[in-house]
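User: Before I run my own analysis I want an independent prediction to cross-check against. Here's the chain; please return only the structure tokens and, at the end, one sentence I can use as a sanity check.
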Amino acid sequence: MKKRVMIAAVAIAGCIGLAGCGAGTSGSTETTESKQSETTQEQASVIDYMVLVNKENPLPDKWEDEVSLTKYTNSLGDEVLTESRAYDAYLELKKDLEAEGIHVDLDSAYRSIEAQKEIVEDFTKKYGETYVQQYVAVPGYSEHHTGLALDLYLNVDGKDVYYNEDMVKYPEIWEKIHAKLAEHGFILRYLEGKESITGFNYEPWHIRYLDDPEVAKEITEKGITLEEYLGILPKTDVTPPKE
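Assistant: Structure tokens:
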């Protein structure tokens, strides 16, 4: 989806299970006290990091009550909420990429069901129903509800690049990013050519945290989707409509 429209919706997510829920600073996260860190780990332990949320599988009941989130302010000044372990892994990925001269930031991660409803309404008005069916999940069926799905954006030559139509102009950068995902427990979620399984078009910026680098490596090396790895294929035709 076109990035800058959906950022404001994240703010209404509130502080559900939030670690360090205070005012952030640009490009930084709040420092969490040791007691909060222990609570975060306890909360994170109840999360199923292999959970499948897609067009046919809704967010599990009580997930939003149990997920532990970390609040972050990106380079654009937008607040982003991310599942806490996924955020820690993202920081390691970011550091690894920067060592190769590649700079990324978080555009979006956790979105509440209420926020998703607003996005659907907004995008339907702006871009029409066909676009929404291609790129925007039905509220309750968005992987972003988990806090484990992260949308990245690029910084190229000191300039933030966050609109989808601009980001796709850098396939060589995305290729290098994708090569680093698995070792940090991430996979590329919406693969090119797998639209009939994922229900969404290829999105080089949308990554998913699994909390298991070995599983992430297996999925990546086989070139399969999370649905295929779990053996949970769609029961109906979920292929997004053509433009």
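Sanity check: Strands lie at 18-19, 28-29, 69-73, 79-83, 103-108, 149-156, 159-161, 186-188, 206-209.
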